[in-house]
Amino acid sequence: MLERSAGLGLDGVFFRSILELSPTLDQTEIEESMQAARELGQRVEAGVGKVNPFATPEAPRIRALGDGDYLLAMRKMIEAAAKGGIHELWSATANYQFRLSGLYACDRFRTDVDWSEQLTATAKFLHRLAPILRDNATHLNLETHEEITTFELVRLVEEVGPDVLGITFDSANVLVRCEDPIAAVRRAAPYIRSSHIRDAALLFRPDGIARILAPVGDGVIDWELFLEPILDHDLMLSIEGIVESTRGEMTLNIYDERWQRGHPDLALAEAFEVIRLASTYESRAASGELPTWDELHAPLGPDESLHFIERSARHLREVIGRLTPSQNTERQEPENGKYPQ
Known about the structure:
Layout: H1 2-7, E1 12-15, H2 27-40, E2 43-47, H3 60-65, H4 70-83, E3 88-91, H5 115-135, E4 139-143, H6 150-160, E5 165-170, H7 173-176, H8 181-188, E6 192-196, E7 199-205, E8 208-214, H9 223-227, E9 250-252, H10 257-261, H11 268-286, H12 293-296, H13 304-323, H14 325-328
Parallel strand pairs: 1-2, 2-3, 3-4, 4-5, 5-6
Antiparallel strand pairs: 7-8, 8-9
Protein name: Sugar phosphate isomerase/epimerase
GO molecular function, one term: isomerase activity
Region (Disordered): 321-341
């Protein structure tokens, strides 16, 4: 993966789990991977497990690392990553069940445990992790995952401590919670330490608004406004692409009263902005400027996943070049089809 990233002219790789560098957390394997990354000029970021105790049973591989002790498993991953030089670690709070459809595909709407109870349990577990993170000079960066809002993430970071917690900002996921991506990134900016970058199509459906992943520049996000608050954060803009089977479609069930009750922080202005973005996208799609509903539901082509990443990287560099022209003049165009490091 590191060699392929370098070959494409990209700057690094974000591994979802430190276990991708070594399934057994073998320190020699991790250090060899990091040495390879340095030789290739690649930046490396990685993740650990989920931190919502109601979601952790769905990660038996991680629990097994601690012989059933999930906290011990997390300690082992944090320490192994730190020894390898990785001190910014991804995590998230819950899951989205893609095999299901409807409101209950999202853990936010579980009926066996309220979302508020899940947040309380998550905060308690994060407090247990905090001393481990401090001892390893490490931040655990909670993702703006499909189930959680930036309002809730900011509160978690401020409660447990920004010295050990940060935010992995996913630009497309905030739309699933009906947040204006520009307002959301500004709200979370003081704590953003990592990123998942992709765009999104928004289309009206009978049950709400569909969010479908799109390459950066081919969706609803204004990237100049989006990047401005985080340009000085020394972030790796990590392009989270699409897998071969799906474009990551999720639904904002905005007409459902249960969905509405489940968003006590939702600002009316932001909801209206998301509706405006959907209307604008549909107009542009109708004019042939952007893909239509039918085009977005066509089978993925054999190279579409790669093109998603390449298109996103190209657009990001163009936008950054406009925002910081004096620093990016030599990164405007690829040479021989590849982007300079």
